[in-house]
Amino acid sequence: MCFPFTAIPPDIPAARRVRPAMAGGAAGERLTLTSQDGTEFSAYLARADGPAGVVVLPDVRGLFRFYEQLAERFADAGHPAIAIDYFGRTAGLGPRDEDFEYMPHVQQTTPPTVAQDVAAAIERLRSETGATTIVTVGFCFGGAQSFMQGAEGHPGLAGVVGFYGSLVREGQRWTLDRAPDIAVPVLGLFAGDDGHITQDQVEAFEKALTVENEIEVYPRAPHSFFDRRQEQYADASADAWERVLRFIESLSKVEA
Fold it and tell me: How confident is the model at residue 67, as a pLDDT?
């Protein structure tokens, strides 16, 4: 598991806020999207006026309040954002509580079906907000899925970001295997004190990439450090926010 159900996204740096602070962030709305194979799945859209939009890919829990709040944080920074759920095919529509048994549903996901859902989210984000530059941002399982979207050829996808995205998965063609096929810039943010994603894996991933990339490892941070309640990692979280926002803005300028 990545974030606990009670986790809270760190606030964006004050200098990055383009709208007044609101309780919980910029107001958003729950939506039902339809994937390319006809599957309905849950999503959460936070609107903003900027040209660069974000598709948020959750951890193994799927869509829950942490990722809705994260979409709101991006909107606070001027980037419309849509967070999606993975489990429309197996668990139906959300929202779900802390007792949701997510792993049987995670095990039934596949990179192709996630890519279909991401394609629907990109289309909705562009049609609803007018965003012309799209970036995926994912965490843990979602970090892996975010990286892999860079090899899917999504129209308008300009870059991919992964927070401690898993790089290998036994018996599957996973992130490290797909790295040479990624065709857009990559920002990878990893935790140095992460027992599941080792430094040698991170180095192999960086070496396998053939596109512009930025890989940062926070030496003493654990997996899932990006949580406002973990105050001892506040500096790492603030730095991560800056890197993500700079990455998005640099791609928006390139696309313009």
Answer: 97
Is there a contact between 117 and 86 (Cβ–Cβ < 8 Å)? yes
Is residue 38 classed as helix, strand or coil in its secondary structure?
A: coil
* Assessment of whether the complete model's pTM goes beyond 0.70: yes
- Of the chain, the percentage scoring pLDDT greater than 70 comes to 95
Round to whole Å and give the CA distance between 122 and 134.
7
Q: In whole angstroms, what is the distance from residue 220 CA to residue 196 CA?
A: 14
Question: 4-9: long-range contacts (C-beta < 8 A, 24 or more apart)?
Answer: 5/61, 5/64, 5/65, 5/66, 5/97, 5/98, 6/229, 7/66, 7/224, 7/227, 7/228, 7/229, 8/66, 8/69, 8/227, 8/228, 8/229, 9/66, 9/69, 9/70, 9/73, 9/226, 9/227, 9/228
Residue 24: predicted pLDDT: 43
DSSP E strand stretches across the chain: 28-34, 40-46, 52-57, 81-84, 133-139, 157-163, 186-193, 213-222
Residue 207 has pLDDT above 90, yes or no: yes
